[in-house]
Amino acid sequence: MRVLLTGHNGYIGSVLGSYLQEASHDVVGLDTGYFQECTLPPNKTNFPVIWKDLRDLELVDLEGFEAVIHLAALSNDPLGDLNKRWTDEINREASVRLANLCKAAGIRRFLFSSSCIMYGAATTGLVNEESPLDPKTDYATSKVESEYAISKLADKHFSPTFLRNGTVYGRSPRMRFDTVLNNLMGSALTSGKVVLYSDGKPWRPVVHVQDVSKAFIHLLEAPVEVIHNQAFNTGADHLNKTIIELAEIVVGLVPGCELEILAKPGADQRTYKADFNKFATSFPNFTFQWSPRDGAQELSDALREIRLSDSDYQNHHFTRLRWLSFLLKTGRLDPSLRWQPEDVPKT
Ligand SMILES: NC(=O)c1ccc[n+]([C@@H]2O[C@H](COP(=O)([O-])OP(=O)(O)OC[C@H]3O[C@@H](n4cnc5c(N)ncnc54)[C@H](O)[C@@H]3O)[C@@H](O)[C@H]2O)c1
What we know:
single chain, alpha/beta, Rossmann fold, two-stranded parallel sheet, 13 strands, binds nicotinamide-adenine-dinucleotide
């Protein structure tokens, strides 16, 4: 299939882009390149790329594609604190606009990278795709509202699909240490310590970046009647872990590492244990290969191999909020979060 992959230059996109090529899809990336300089170690994309802000896309950019995988977003909760408006403008408004453009361009398959974060503080056991949504942040709200608006566009010519991912971890050329397991492992390896600022009880499904990438491809290739206007919690039951279980896995893999629990009142209480039954029954041939323990081991090996230092781990390049704040402070991004003309990525 000829596939447009938005956000190809990000943490998930730079793994998924290569897998799409390996699966013989004709992939074109589209990204504004916020994290173009944030590589660990550097990688080079070898598929064609459109460097453009999602908000500035036109119909002509979408000509000739059969599918769009839409990852581009301000991707995580703290980014909402940077400027509430940007999260809404990029994550919701531009995503809904993109979906409308896809429909106008006759692109039937539209895979949207959504998140289990939309279940918020779900205290009622397992959450499935029919459970009430309870977004606790601007980021989570942007995902809920996007799904809602895009699903209304579905018809016999347009089949959106919503992959509600758990928190993604594992090595990527555009590494980030601001997601839970990457953060814990980076800390363990560079300081010999894992510190939890909550009691560690919240549930947080996790999914390896390789598995989530393969899941996108599996759904891209699935019969359209299975995925038409459907949301899927994307993962498997063995990926539901509490934060403390994740921390204990990490501590167990790094000799001499200590676990410190500094629970503070008002600590992050987002908790959701996802029911993955719909995914398992809809896609019986798909397996999530990485258990959190094996995946954490693989991540640890990968980070040791590149000799992750404390300055790498602490570096603003690998925390989305800190990097965007730096680009704004240094004037490379303008107040609308667009590049100054001389800074737009060219390669
Ligand atoms: N990483 C996770 O744990 C996780 C979990 C659930 C869902 N998701 C979703 O998956 C998607 C990808 O996540 P990620 O971790 O790869 O994030 P990321 O921040 O690493 O990558 C996002 C990419 O989108 C691009 N982008 C942002 N705004 C843009 C704009 N206005 N125009 C064009 N490009 C723009 C960025 O330059 C970046 O390359 C996001 O939609 C995110 O919400 C991620």
